[in-house]
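Methods, example record. To illustrate the input and output format used throughout this study, we show the complete record for Mannitol dehydrogenase family protein. The sequence lines were provided to the predictor; the line carrying structure tokens was produced by it.
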Amino acid sequence: MDELTALSNITLKNLPSGVRVPHYDRSVLSAGIVHIGLGNFHRAHQAWYLHRLMDAGLCHDWAIIGAGVRANDAQQRERLIAQDCLTTLIELDPSGMSAEISGSMIDFLPVEEGNQALIERMAQPDIRIVSLTVTEGGYYIDPSSGGFDASHPDIVYDSQNPTHPKTAFGAMVAALKLRREKELGPFTGLSCDNLQGNGTILKRAVVGLAGMSDPDLATWIEAQCTFPNSMVDCIVPATGPKELELVHSFGIDDKAPVTHENFRQWVIEDDFCAGRPDWDKVGATLSGDVHEYEAMKLRILNGGHQMIAVPADLLGIDTISGAMAHDGIRAMLQKIIKQEVAPNVKSVPNMAPLDYLQLIERRFSNPEIVDTTRRVAFDGSSRQTGFIVPSIRDALAGGQPIDGLALMSALWARYCLAQREDGSAIAPNDPYWDELQIVAHAAQNNPIAWLKMRKYYGDLSENAVFSSAFAHWYEVLARDGVEAALSAYNSDKVPAV
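The corresponding predicted structure is encoded as:
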């Protein structure tokens, strides 16, 4: 292999000619956004939209300042600061790979206990948007009520230590307090996580936390700040040895490259109290009705991801494209979506639910995207609750079948026994793994014990139709295994138990 070029501002001109580099002068960029949660998804999605705007000669005063509130974010900071916050984006398409250097991020704040650097930076007048990708499980949602969990130890701590908070929301509250005191005005809080009504959920967390220590500040935030809802979509695998090899194949030494599919979508509610970049000029959709886009994506794509990742990992299939190559898993996905999910999902402009199903089937099947079933199956306690359970409730209310969704729930219970069909162990894969394992073992003697976890299923254990179907499929899985259960569901041959 030829010698690699270390990624930095001064080496951009030395990169191979086939690598797309920024067309703008990064030295004149100024900040407008603080983004909390600098994982791969943000850099392949929101940061890319802004990068392309800058390439068009626009929005050079909206550059991103990166931030993190977890201890391991410090390692990401070291990697990105060392390469001037540049990122190599590698598009993986069956027709061929391409590489592009994104330069819309210009700094990464120190990651420190108490989050003082983050608070002070968000309190500066040039910051007009604070955006977040902190995962679905990072919003302190009470699973049983769906509301803000004010009793969580992190939230209690922040309410008692508002000047030295632990959480992103505590830091936002502290920064808004400083802005109010200095009469600098509010900023927009923009969630970019996979939650229906993510802006509403972010507002509830920020206002709710502020109200625990400073009710007047909470009132001001509610009146002055905006929290637009948004829907984000792009399949972005984690970075590992394969991704590092790929970036090296382009002649680039990038310690934090990102691979992604040849598809992006961003639908945003146009509700920004302090201005925004012109994202719509590079393909984002500004809409007054984000909810329908959210519902389609969360129910069909995110829900569909769970439907294939869980049985695939149980069968020892490592990748999402590998799961789609399994006839039984693919047939289950199609049948559940067509019969049990799509009837309760509305069309959006230029896309009907079943057309969207065909789109995600193509995307999931892309063999160039090495997205692991383990990564997608992670955090079922949030993802099953957010992506599967709402479809169960809608199907029950609408009189649609629920057998496939019941099978999906039974597969998750089976997954939490932490053993694959071949006897190999499934390493912990959920923030509540120990608790889930205990209940999964109890369900071996009484399947309904799984549904009695009210913080995930609410009152579904009391619904005779769903609980009966769940118990049936749980027992089929226990007796005959995953392959047989998939075959029975797909063939409409319901085996006796």
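Annotations derived from this record:
The chain is about 45% helix and 10% strand.
The radius of gyration is 23 Å.
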